């Protein structure tokens, strides 16, 4: 069976890798499983990425690059900065459609925390996401969605904590869906800071 080394973009392979992580976790992920997802042979993945570790590091690096474009992409699809913020946060957790998938992606985070090479990419993602939240909140203040006295730095830290914690609490109590849970919690956090105009619109 011949592989298709030049027929499948790296982006497709990396998306498939993330899907397989959600299914089985990073420890049980194999090049063969990823290859099946994209219709290739494992040897082609070895040629491109060198090893399973090389594939996962490439995924981590690409995720860090994608994170840097978060605010621009979110605003391109939403006229409201707050709507863009919610959409961006929900999109980050979109692959975690079940508690099991959340647990498997969380296991990848554990790798990020303990392996120096992975950690540098995870830190870059963390910093980029924080800057994206800060940028969108500042735009919401400038646009009159949030009150002028909103402390953007403080609210940024709170929003980041909500995003980080929503998945864990949802995976434990399993009530509703994760996107709905996160959107509702963000609404709750932002509500005291909404301008009168924004409150009337809700």
From TrEMBL:
InterPro entries: Homeodomain-like_sf (IPR009057), HTH-type_TetR-like_transc_reg (IPR050109), HTH_TetR (IPR001647), Tet_transcr_reg_TetR-rel_C_sf (IPR036271), TetR_C (IPR011075). Residues 30-49 bind DNA. Residues 7-67 form the HTH tetR-type domain. Keywords: DNA-binding, Transcription, Transcription regulation. This is TetR/AcrR family transcriptional regulator. It comes from Haloechinothrix salitolerans.
């Amino acid at each position: 069976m011949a592989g298709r080394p030049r027929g499948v973009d790296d982006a497709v392979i990396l998306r498939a890798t993330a899907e397989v992580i959600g299914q089985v976790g990073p420890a049980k992920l194999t090049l063969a499983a990823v290859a099946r997802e994209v219709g290739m042979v494992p040897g082609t993945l070895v040629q491109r990425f060198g090893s399973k570790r090389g594939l996962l590091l490439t995924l981590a690096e690409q995720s860090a690059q994608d994170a840097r474009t978060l605010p621009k992409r979110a605003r391109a699809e939403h006229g409201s900065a707050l709507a863009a913020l919610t959409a961006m946060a929900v999109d980050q957790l979109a692959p975690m459609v079940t508690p099991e998938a959340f647990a498997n992606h969380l296991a990848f985070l554990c790798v990020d925390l303990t392996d120096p090479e992975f950690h540098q990419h995870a830190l870059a993602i963390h910093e980029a996401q924080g800057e994206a939240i800060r940028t969108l909140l500042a735009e919401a203040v400038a646009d009159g969605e949030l009150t002028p006295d909103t402390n953007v730095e403080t609210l940024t830290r709170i929003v980041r904590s909500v995003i980080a914690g929503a998945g864990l609490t949802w995976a434990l109590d399993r009530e509703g869906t994760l996107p709905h849970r996160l959107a509702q919690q963000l609404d709750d956090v932002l509500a005291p800071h909404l301008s009168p105009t924004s409150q009337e619109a809700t």
